[in-house]
Amino acid sequence: MSLLKEKIIGSAMQIFSQKGYAATSIQDIANDCGIAKGSLYKIFASKEDLLVEVYRNRTQAMFEEANRIRSDLSMSPRERFVLQTHRQFKFFLEFKYSIKDFYELPMNEDGVFSKFLQQMRSQMLVNYAELMITVYGPEIENNKWDIIALYSGILKEYMIMTTLITSPFDYDRMANFVVDRMDEMVAGIRSSELEPILDEEVMSKFVANGMHGCRVPTGEQLHASLTKLTATIQELQVTNARKAELHEAAHLLQEEADDERPRMVLVRALIGLLQTQHELTAIASQLERLYESKRTRLLS
Questions:
Q1: Which of 9, 44, 92, 193 gives a 20 to 30 Å CA spacing to 165?
Q2: Taking a C-beta distance cutoff of 8 angstroms, is the pair 266, 253 a contact?
Q3: Under DSSP, is residue 108 helix (H, G, I), strand (E, B) or coil?
Q4: Nearby residues of 116 by Cβ (< 8 Å), 6 or more positions away
Q5: Which stretches of the chain score pLDDT less than 50?
Q6: Cβ within 8 Å of residue 40, ≥6 positions away
Q7: Tens of pLDDT, residues 182-218
Q8: 195-198, Cβ contacts within 8 angstroms, sequence gap of 24 or more
Q9: Is the distance from CB of 283 to CB of 225 less than 8 angstroms?
Q10: What does the longest C-alpha to C-alpha distance in the chain come to?
Q11: Which pLDDT score is estimated for 215?
Q12: Which CATH class for the 46-215 domain?
């Protein structure tokens, strides 16, 4: 990396942090670096490109530190888990502007920043998967994505709270508290015989697509979910008549998925029927979201 590019990134990090992304102009950064705006545009074609580079620079440092922590065998797996959680809080503390401004950013689904976020999310999920298996062992493999969802959700909410509340936080205590709660939840999941909410096949495809900066197409997600629905119905301990009814609903949903313009009144009625069978509630809700997503895309 050239010295000028490094200087621009450092300046952007500082000004984004002080003023927020939306309020920062390319001219602000050029002035801080003592260069003409045109010279900056020769290195970064847009403010969005510069934002991506700022994020990439910092997240790469975060992932490298996570790898160093995981490789430090002088600590127990749980100690490494606590330290990595603490580092996550510290990382996002430095990037408070990212959390505050994130939902106000002009997010073009096919834009540079949107694609980068998908790549970063997938890389983060892979990092968390390795972490959870290291801490809790291979026996959680079947439920690892649900465990990761719980962990990342807790982190996200605490990070948001730290941007909204001005009083100081004890991040060491917070990290230990989070890991204690994860221990309890993982113990509960281990003792449960419930099927995972986040399916391994679906999540693996989601992560793989994200690594390439793209989402799993809605059609593919629908197909995978309907395949899982059919398999789940087949395993239900219900009467033959009830099973036939549910299979018929799944068949009709498949026909609507294959149609370019699914009939949402029929789809909602079929999903309502599936939701009367408690074992199918989660997958029915997922299907409802996917059909609504397909409908929204058609209308846009």
A1: 9
A2: no
A3: coil
A4: 52, 55, 56, 213
A5: 97, 99, 103
A6: 8, 26, 29, 30, 33
A7: 999 999 999 987 788 888 888 888 888 887 766 667 7
A8: 195/232, 196/142, 196/143, 196/145, 196/146, 197/146, 197/149, 197/282, 198/145, 198/146, 198/149
A9: yes
A10: 77
A11: 64
A12: mainly alpha
From the candidate CATH numbers 3.40.50.10490, 3.90.550.10, 1.25.40.20, 1.10.10.60, the one assigned to the domain spanning 1-44: 1.10.10.60
Cα gap 192→40, rounded to integer Å = 56
Q: Which amino acid is at 82?
A: V
Type of residue found at 13 = M
Q: Could you tell me the two tokens for 66?
A: 């996570």
- If one counts every other C-beta atom within 10 angstroms of the C-beta of residue 20, the result is 15
Q: What is the pLDDT of residues 117-127, one digit of tens each?
A: 788 888 889 99
CA distance 219 to 225: 10
The two tokens of residue 114 are 């949107």
Q: Can you read off the two tokens belonging to residue 235?
A: 């395993």
Q: Using an 8 Å Cβ cutoff, are 33 and 50 in contact?
A: no
What CA–CA distance (Å, rounded) separates 224 from 201? Answer: 8
Distances (CA, A) of 238 to 57, 123, 196, 232, 278: 55, 41, 21, 12, 12
Neighbour-count burial of 274, counting CB atoms closer than 10 A to its CB (0-12 exposed, 13-18 middle, 19+ buried): buried
The amino acid occupying position 273 is L
251 within 8 A of 298, measured Cβ to Cβ:
no
Residues 6+ apart with CB under 8 A from 121: 210
